[in-house]
Amino acid sequence: MTVDGGYPAELQLLVAGGPAGPSGHDTVPVLNPADETELGQLPVATSADLDAALAGAARGYPGWRARAPEARGRILRDAAALLRQRTEAIATIATLEQGKTRAELRIEVQLAAAALEWYAEEGRRAYGRVLPQRAPGSRTLVVREPVGPVAAFTPWNFPLLAPARKIGAALAAGCPCILKPAEEAPASALAIARALLDAGLPHGVLSVVAGGPAQISAHLLGSPIVRKVSFTGSAAVGRQLLKLAADGITRTTMELGGHAPVIVLDDANLDVAIAHSVFMKYRNAGQICISPTRFYVHQAVYERFAEHFGAGARKLTVGDGLDEATAMGPLGHARRPAAIEEFVSDARGRGAEVLAGGQAIERAGYFWEPTVLVDVPADARVMNEEPFGPVAVITPIEDLDDAIAQANRLPYALAAYAFTQDARSVRELGDRLEAGIIGLNTYAVAAPEAPFGGLKESGIGYEDGIEGLDAHLVSKAIYEA
Questions:
Q1: Which of 143, 153, 250, 293 has the least CB density, counted as fewest CB within 10 Å?
Q2: Quick one: the chain helix, strand, coil %, rounded to 5?
């Protein structure tokens, strides 16, 4: 594929370093969520393609793991530089197939490049250690080695950053990678792969396949070649992958989403909290695993917060992500508007008030109004299941204890946020909130040098940070006499 401008004329899989186009393959359409037009036909990987990808990973593994970390890192750094050079073209491709604004996707290209650069450097620090002698003349070493070929599965909501995180970690550790991106946004992941190949990545070390998730996951995880699986997506699919991984005692990293609470106390800087909350809630139409949804606001400032939040939601310009005036693009695919309708209808049926939005936008594409719900009972679906869309729920709370109890009551614990100017409350929130990622007076909670992952049913393990590299390494103890 090319990234010179517009959408690729033909979508091709990358199988053991070589292209696999539509010829001889079943295909599925890739649609533009802003107008429902067809962008291209994506080849569906055959069993032969998957076997070739596995064989390529097995062949490429010895040479790639033996390559010096600095040499592996050079390829990752060069690929990051290519991504930055191609920012506009790649952001356009991703906007066409995923829908979020091009401004957001320009930033995502930079985040993807930063992820590759982080792993390029951190791969040089896969440290072992020398233990104290147990007897004169003896020595005990602990060395860190790559776990082996990795099967990685990425979602459609972050079509650039998610593949870069998974590929970068695997390659930096010395592991080949077979990536299955979401069928809704394949060209974005292929643009990451193209940058790596253009930077000198050996053929076979990376494959990009697509098709039926159940078929591909069963095929890849059923092979003894795959020694680790990394998945980002729903808890339901994660459970299925964990069962498949158990058969081969395959290591896993699972990022399974959340239902992020936001606590706003009465001493918060309300103007900052409202402005940042509206922006973050409707970024990517709320289709972010760490998107804030459950707002627990102290009753002393509740009415003001809700009124201004609703006003902010109503002011947002919704439209095609290619239009620079657009603040919020469409939902990612055809299934999402119906899913959001179910959440909103359920809340309304239980007595909730719609403060803003609340319905689909009548036009081509998968558009939904930025929505704010109040007076939502605790048993409503939206209070207990992640809506993964542009829906905010605002609920009054009495005090900090009440807020923390509400925030922690669900089995999901990926991200949590709070706004307060009291230092003691900041410390208490950091200690008591149950989440793998906590933002206190900020929503800027993702960085390549910090671990990204959840607690409870929000996942197992971490991406990014030293933890992201460590997840692709195994320890070996060597005793010398």
A1: 143
A2: 40, 20, 40
What DSSP assignment string belongs to 434-451? Answer: --SEEEES------TTS-
Q: 39-51 pLDDT, tens per residue?
A: 999 999 999 999 9
CA atoms of 245 and 238, how far apart (whole Å): 10
CA–CA dist 27, 304 (Å, integer): 52
Residue 469, CA distances (Å) to 124, 146, 335 in order: 10, 10, 35
Say which of 117, 183, 289, 434 is annotated catalytic: 289
What CA dihedral angle connects 458, 461, 463 and 469, to 10 degrees? 180
Phi then psi for residue 26, to 5 deg, are: -65, 155
Domain boundaries, the chain: 13-256+458-480, 260-447
Q: Could you give the C-alpha distances from 141 to 67, 75, 137, 479, in angstroms and in order?
A: 21, 29, 13, 6
Give the integer Cα–Cα distance in Å for 272 and 221: 46
Cα 73 versus chain centre, distance: 23
Burial (CB count within 10 angstroms: exposed 0-12, middle 13-18, buried 19+), residue 62: exposed
Distance CA 396, CA 394 (A): 7
- Catalytic residue list contains 457: no
**pLDDT tens by residue, 332-370:** 999 999 999 999 999 999 999 999 999 999 999 999 999
Check 117, 184, 255, 386 and give the catalytic one: 255
Whether 175 is a known active-site residue: answer no
Across the range 410-418, mean pLDDT stands at: 98
CATH architecture of 13-256+458-480: 3-Layer(aba) Sandwich (3.40)
Report the Cα 171 to chain-centroid distance in Å: 18
